[in-house]
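Priority: medium. Attachment 1 of 2:
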C-alpha cells in the first residue's frame, strides 16, 4: 500500500509539473492578432490583421492524421529544419483549413519579414500572406475530434444564418494548446465572412 501511495504521489506530481509548464509556456506565445467587432451568444465577429503563415498542404481531411502530420512538418522547419538551421518562435494557434485537402499553418512571428525567413529543407512548406479579413469564431474546450469540429461548424453556420450574416465557405480549425496540455484547452471553428 505504501509503494502504491508513493507511485500515485509521483504521478500526480509529474502531471501537475507538466500542466504548470504548459500554462506558463502559453503566456509567451505570440497569437494571430484580431479585434472583436461584435459578440453574440454563441460566437464572435472578429477583424484579423494581415499576417504571414508557413503552411503545408496535405492529402487528408482527417483531423487527427492532418494535425499530427502537418504539425510535424511545420515544427521541423521552425525547430531548425531550414538552410540556416535557425529556430523560429512558436506561435498560436495552429490553423487548419477544413477542406478535402487540409492545409496546416503556423503564423510567422510579426518581427520576421518574408525576405528574412530561412528556406525550408522540406519542399512541401510554403509561405502564405493572409490579407486582413473579417471572420466569425465559435469557441469550444476539451479535445478536438473530427466529430466535434463538424458539430461546432454546424452550430456556427446555424448561428450566422439566424443573425442573417453572410459568410464564405472557407472554414478553419484553430487549436491553441500543446498536445500535453490537459487543462483549459481552447479550440475554435472560424469562417471567413463576405
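Attachment 2 of 2:
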Amino acid at each position: 500500500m505504501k509503494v502504491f501511495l508513493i507511485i500515485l504521489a509521483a504521478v500526480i506530481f509529474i502531471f501537475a509539473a507538466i500542466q504548470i509548464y504548459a500554462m506558463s509556456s502559453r503566456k509567451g506565445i505570440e497569437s494571430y492578432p484580431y479585434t472583436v467587432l461584435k459578440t453574440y451568444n454563441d460566437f464572435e465577429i472578429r477583424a484579423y490583421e494581415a499576417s504571414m503563415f508557413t503552411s503545408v498542404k496535405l492529402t487528408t481531411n482527417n483531423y487527427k492524421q492532418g494535425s499530427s502530420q502537418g504539425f510535424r512538418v511545420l515544427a521541423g522547419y521552425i525547430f531548425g529544419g531550414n538552410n540556416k538551421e535557425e529556430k523560429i518562435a512558436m506561435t498560436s494557434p495552429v490553423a487548419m483549413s477544413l477542406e478535402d485537402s487540409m492545409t496546416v499553418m503556423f503564423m510567422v512571428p510579426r518581427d520576421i519579414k518574408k525576405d528574412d525567413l530561412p528556406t525550408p529543407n522540406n519542399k512541401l512548406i510554403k509561405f502564405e500572406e493572409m490579407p486582413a479579413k473579417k471572420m466569425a469564431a465559435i469557441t469550444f474546450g476539451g479535445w478536438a475530434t473530427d466529430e466535434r469540429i463538424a458539430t461546432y461548424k454546424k452550430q456556427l453556420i446555424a448561428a450566422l444564418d439566424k443573425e442573417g450574416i453572410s459568410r464564405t465557405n472557407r472554414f478553419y480549425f484553430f487549436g491553441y494548446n500543446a498536445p500535453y496540455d490537459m487543462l483549459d484547452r481552447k479550440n475554435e471553428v472560424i469562417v471567413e465572412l463576405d
